[in-house]
Amino acid sequence: MGLSMHMQQALRVLQMPIDALYTWLQDTITQNPFLEWTETPIHPPLHDNIPSSAPSLFSHLMQQAKISVNQARTLSIIEWIVGNLDTSGLCSTSRQECPLLPSEQEWKECLTIIQSFDPPGIGAESLQESLLLQLASRNQQSSILYRIIQDDFSMLQKENYKKLQEKYHLSQQEQKKIYQQLYSLTPHPGAMFPSSCSLPLPIDIIVSLEEISPVEIVPVPLPKIKPIPNTLVSLEEIELCKQLHMQAKLTLQIIKKRNTTLHAIASYLIHTQKAFLEGSSSTLRPIHMQTIAHALQMHESTIARAIAHKHILSPRGVLPLKSLLSRTLIQEISCDAAQKLLQKLIQEENRSIPLSDQELCVKMQNLGVPCSRRTITKYRKTLRIPSSRQRKLLTNMCRNYTSQLHHI
Description:
- The structure is a single chain.
- Helix content is 55%, strand content 6%.
- It is α+β, with helices and mostly antiparallel strands.
- The chain folds into three domains: 50-198, no CATH class; 200-216 and 235-321, no CATH class; 328-398, Arc Repressor Mutant, subunit A (Orthogonal Bundle).
- It has a four-stranded mixed sheet with strand order 5-4-7-8, with helices on one face. Strands 1-6 form a two-stranded antiparallel ribbon. Strands 2-3 form a two-stranded antiparallel sheet.
- The protein is flat and about 80 Å long.
């Protein structure tokens, strides 16, 4: 038996972090005439997790977004996408990963907006698209290079210059012009900015570790419900108003239920891990979702939804709520350290002869990090680092551009 629409909505709201909840509530109030703010809403608190002295790619793009975009929901989706661009400035995440659950049309519109920003080529979903965007920003859509990248990008990647010359009947002068254009493009439009992301984290829970109210769920101002006017005449108007009025009541119930559930789960976790959070212990107590579900008489899926995408502000700094499950935090800390080491090894490799995943695995093991080749591949994909073959290809492309320029 399927869940009712009300239950489905309640589960979606439970999973929302506070910034997504805030945007959803604003949209709901706009669409329902029986809901209105009781006070001027204040944007939920944010915490800068990685401060940076130089402007980051995130701040550079969001400055442009705040000038270009007026709708709160669109701005929130753009903020999420921009915060999840890879180090090259390309978008390698999917619409399904975004907690705001944008429609396909919303996703495409937001990407189009981002792709109109400086630097050209930013926010593209592939290297090919990024290069085309860079040419389009120079009004070179009718150029031969644009056609080559659009229709024969694989031939360009494989360095089949002779075939390209034959197919497009290129003269020596045209070849020179094409290579000059190609050399002026960049495969990494975001590389000029600091690689660290300064995406501010929304705080859902504040932990004080005091006896009085140790756990605070960051509140969103609740709207008030307007009464149904007694001046309605037609049955259609009366029925429609009753439906909207009921939806308004259900909205408040859903938010209150979310806060109650989240408070119960957070309180249990924080009470269990108090020694770790206050610094008197360096390790977490063993606890799993089954334990919490049994203690609070909730379903495990409810626990999983409630702790997803939530962050707590604690004496130990900002932590994902799910990290208070002991196994999760240990894995996150060890994975984070291993990924940083992997990233360092790749940054220091000979770019002409990049290390394969197996070679990286051996180096990691020699440095005392036990892992398999499959784990290295997984970490590399998480870090959005291309394979050794792709890294070599990009290096050769850049080198050949330069070489061709010198020989023409």
